[in-house]
Amino acid sequence: MINKIKLTACAAFLSFTGIAQEVEFTEYQLDNGLNVILHQDNSAPVVTTSVMYHVGAKNENPERTGFAHFFEHLLFEGTENIGKGEWFKIVSSNGGSNNANTTDDRTYYYEIFPSNNLELGLWMESERMMHPIIDQKGVDTQNEVVKEEKRMRVDNAPYGQIFAEVKKRLYENHPYRWTTIGSMDHLDAATLEEFREFNDKFYVPNNATLVVAGDIEIEKTKKMIQDYFGPIEKGAPIEQINIEEEPITQQLEGTYHDPNIQIPAVVLAYRTPSMKERDAYVLDMISSVLSDGKSSRLYNKLVDDQKQALEIGAFNIAQEDYGQYVVFGLPLGETSLDTLTSEIDEEIVRLQNEMISEREYEKLQNKFENRFVNSNSSIAGIASSLATYQMLYGNTDLINEEIDIYRSITREEIQEVAKKYLNPNQRLVLDYLPQTDSE
């Protein structure tokens, strides 16, 4: 058992920030391999119970994409002791709320209850893990739900296909090449047995992290966790994905026509390292310099000053194995996509050739200090962070220590990392265009 007790407070931030107390937590593992993290905060009578499973879109069969996201929905269908359609009724009738989400790397379920319903939350998550009902009726029901979600959020959404088009061009071998929501044809073709096998493989205690955060007593909570989760059988060992991509050495180019848009867009996308790498943190800061707020370089130049862009943004999408650094721009008026690309490149080259100013650097540090404070400002946010740092980064202490990484990043590093990754011969240029009547 490892007790992580943090007794000191972070240094006082600049005038607009408060003081962020370090997050105390207790971390241990059950005999069946379930990782457990407890965070006690008795300031309000609220508790979050959450389970993160180390399964996402990247763990799927290439011929059965969409399974992880599908299970985000399917595992609300009911269990041996929770009737079909009763999950949400039980939560709401006991003063709670709940939700789930899926990425390429993991799936996360959580409930927020008044603290006197802690045991109920633990029971429900143990039921989801131990006694799920996976039958054809539930599969058929959720199949329609997922199809409707895809229609609304992807197929009929303006610019809804951008990340799908980027990913399939940036990756040749790694399963990041497909989308989290996956293929509806794959889900239609899947058998009930395939769904059950996926559940038996991945939704097991040795592939999960349970976090309980809020108004709890540590020893009583440990007893309940042992009672509800201890009897669940350990699954077979799971080997995580380990697929490397060859470096991109010449500019990739692509075109996509979207029937849902009238204004074209240009997308510049670069493959970047794992979110666990220091360079990924530097790329976060580069994103902020380029497009975080109206005073950022790209926004100030292309939207405010030169009136060449309707919208501009640079995003570091950090993931467990690789990341994508994506710059997205909508031209204004008669500005061409080539012109917009040239103007964006000019700012990237300036970042590569000149260190940011001391004033920009100070502003950048202030933003990340403030972001750190906000990330630990709610019990639900702390629970999610604890699970993420433990599972995907392999270091739960990052909930307190990650800010030190950002503080240690220098102006020189920002320049160096921009030179290392944001080059024309290492990227995809995607012209994202309206669909014409002839297409």
From TrEMBL:
It comes from the Bacteria. InterPro entries: Metalloenz_LuxS/M16 (IPR011249), Pept_M16_N (IPR011765), Peptidase_M16 (IPR050626), Peptidase_M16_C (IPR007863). It holds the Pfam family Peptidase_M16_C. Keywords: Hydrolase, Metalloprotease, Protease, Signal, Zinc. Residues 190-367 form the Peptidase M16 C-terminal domain. The lineage of its organism: Bacteria, Pseudomonadati, Bacteroidota, Flavobacteriia, Flavobacteriales. Residues 36-177 form the Peptidase M16 N-terminal domain. One of its GO terms (biological process) is proteolysis. The keyword Secreted does not apply. Belongs to the peptidase M16 family. Residues 1-20 form the signal peptide. This is Zinc protease. One of its GO terms (molecular function) is metallopeptidase activity.
